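Troubleshooting log. The previous structure file for this entry was overwritten by mistake, so regenerating from the original sequence record. Sequence copied from the archived sheet and checked twice against the printout by T.R.
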Amino acid sequence: MDGFACWVIAESYDNELEFSSAKLAVDTVIAQFAKKPSISKRRLKSYVMEAHKQLKDQSAKFRLKSSIMVVATNYKKMRYAHCGNCRLHIFRGNAIAHKSLDQSLYQEMIDEGKIPDDEHYTEESRNLFNYLGKSGRLQVNVSKKMVLYDEDALVLSTWGFWEKVSTLEMLDALEDSLEPEDYLDTLQDLLLSKQDEHVNNFTIATVFVKKTFQEKDNKKKIIMIVVIVSIVVLVIAIVVSIFLWRAAVNRSNLIGSIMEQEQRGNIHLQDRNFDRALSEYEAAIDSSGNLRGIRRRLVRENEEIRDNLAARQRIAQLLTDGESQFRNSNYQQAIFTFERALEEAGSSVVLFDTDILDFLDIEHINNRIALSGDHEFIQSLVLTADSQAALMQFDLAIGNYLQAMMLAENIGNVGLQRDIALMIERVRSQSLAEEAAQLTAQRELSDRERADRILENEIAELEADRVLRTGNTERAIELFLAVQNTYIELGEVSRAAAVEQKIADARDSIRQQEEDEQAAIAGGYLQLGDNYMIANNFTRALYNYRAARDIFTLLRRTEDITISNERISLATTRQTESDMTASILNIMQIEAQGDELLLASNFSGAIERYMQAQVLFRGINQMDRVLLLEEKIRGVRELANASTVAVYGEIEAIRTSDTHDNYTYSSESNVNDDTD
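Regenerated output below.
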């Protein structure tokens, strides 16, 4: 065709004698190509799939099966598609430029290195994985586009030919062939010379590329495109420069606004107005979300600003929560929150040249921690007294109330003193009333009824014991409370106290189980931290170690807190060492650049690199490297001075030689003048 050409070969594999599946496949592909000529991958595959469909539709007595090779070109480039074991060879000059791979067990054995290429394995090369007409999914291999060159030679062949004739023999036969017909005759003679009794069915097609299609010269068009593209690039560069300048100005203004919000938060923090400080820090964090940057330095700077603001917001949040917990009498949690705020403030990074510790009222926070501890102890005394009063241990309850009231007086809490005094009066009244009620009840209750109720209550207590042993602790506590109330009604104070101990033990069991679960969670955090340490992810390790330490602190497990702190210290040290190592390697690269410049006799450049590395080493306190670089700088300067002196010496020698020559010339001129 004018713009395209196509060659197709095929080989039948079925037992149909009256119908040629290979001819049907070839005719189908040629017809499809004539309708829509193309060398696209999708089109070539569609041609072969249509041939596959025709073979399946025409299968009657026997399943029609065929192998196929399709080669298409636009006279500049070519592409081929194949299914089965037909082959394509492309020869260029005195070498094989390309050889197709078939879909057989033989090719698979070659790919796996089990057999060498171009060996004759008849059984394996006829064992096909894909062929036209097969049932199930068909795989068609389509090559990428390949450029054709003048004098290229293409050989399309079926199995009956390439199974007997090797690639090297095809290449040798091409040397003396001037036309494709001559080459075809030579290949056929070579094949027939190898047969003894039986000649397998075969097909060979040869195509010589005499002259590939060349497009017209588009040099002027290309130059015009380059000029236009250059102008567009220049305009884009100007626009980008303006955009970057405006972005830098906007970034500077935004950072200034963030600094103002952070300073207002610091002032509110200093005034112990923690809610307002928290609001300012949160507003600064929201503003920092608008910080943008593509370069690594800006990205790192943005992350540092956000992280440091988040740390301050976290401290303000802790102080706000601590004050709220203190006001709500949640003293144990308040102690933990205030201590955590002090700890995080001590480890926070300086932001905008301001340290958050300079704005914290440390004395106020420590006072809050001490007051929370006193209030927590008073609460424990009051709760103990309440339990004793409930068990009608009125004397013990009044003793604890009095001790709690004395502590409240010591911390100057008048309102708490008043509340505890009311509790004492209530317990005293309850004691008197209970004594009177017991006397009345004892008088009214006959000995028989009392014995029966005690027996019933003992049975109920045994049932509660049984329920407790089954593990249903909550239900057992309910039963114990009912038994305890009955003992109190009957005046069996000692038995009621014994049941109260069982209730306390059951509640301790529940509490211990909860603490064990929390301890297991904390242990999981420790294990996660260890895993991150092994992976050298020290930031994540620190996060998990601190989470474990927080839980152990709430559980008051001193030994586990110590272990957590040790691992936090180790992770912090390892992270610092890792950062130091990275810094040293980066500075040593600068020093190595100085060495390369020195080898190139670029003394000024070498000194500049050494001095830059020296400043950086001094910043990380690597004084031995600083002294070593000082020696290097001194040595380079001496080399530079020596080189300068040598150059000046050569110049002086040349100048002296020129003066002597001029003097001789002048003398000769004077003599001639006298003679004349």
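Residues 623-675 form the longest helix (53 residues). Archived copy saved in two places this time.
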